[in-house]
Amino acid sequence: VNAWDDGGHLNLVVSSTAEGLYDLVLMDAQGKVMATRTSQVIANGTTTLRMDTQHIATGIYMVQLYNSANSMSRRVHLE
């Protein structure tokens, strides 16, 4: 998972060797859930996802993609 903020959206590029359905969660440093997007399709290869972050404060966050079989996470700085 590669993640970056473009000033209003969190952009995620996910590389995967298998297709799957994942839930996307953005959490603050204390583990509080700031935003969620359920049932995101991750394709075999590269998938790009975007999440609106205009109403989320600047700081360090954890983005996590997970389903019953796999979990991927990445720290990201929102500006």
Highlighted features:
79 residues, three-stranded antiparallel sheet, 68% strand
Q: What does this protein structure show overall?
A:
The protein is an all-beta fold. It has no helices and 7 strands. The chain has a 4-stranded antiparallel sheet with strand order 4-3-6-7, with no helix packed on it. Strands 1-2-5 form a 3-stranded antiparallel sheet, with no helix packed on it.
Counting DSSP E segments of at least 2 residues, the number of strands comes to 7
SSE ordering:
EEEEEEE
Please mark out the parts with pLDDT under 50 across 5 or more consecutive residues, or reply none. Answer: none
Distance between the termini: 19 Å
Which strands sit side by side, in order, in the main sheet? Answer: 4-3-6-7
Radius of gyration: 12 Å
**What spatial form do the alpha-carbon principal axes imply?**
globular
The total of helices stands at 0
SSE-based structural type: mainly beta
Main beta sheet: 4 strands, antiparallel
- Mean of residue pLDDT? 93
SSE layout and pairing:
Blueprint: E1 2-5, E2 9-16, E3 20-27, E4 33-42, E5 45-52, E6 59-66, E7 71-78
Antiparallel strand pairs: 1-2, 2-5, 3-4, 3-6, 6-7
Structure in a nutshell:
This protein is mainly β and 79 residues long.
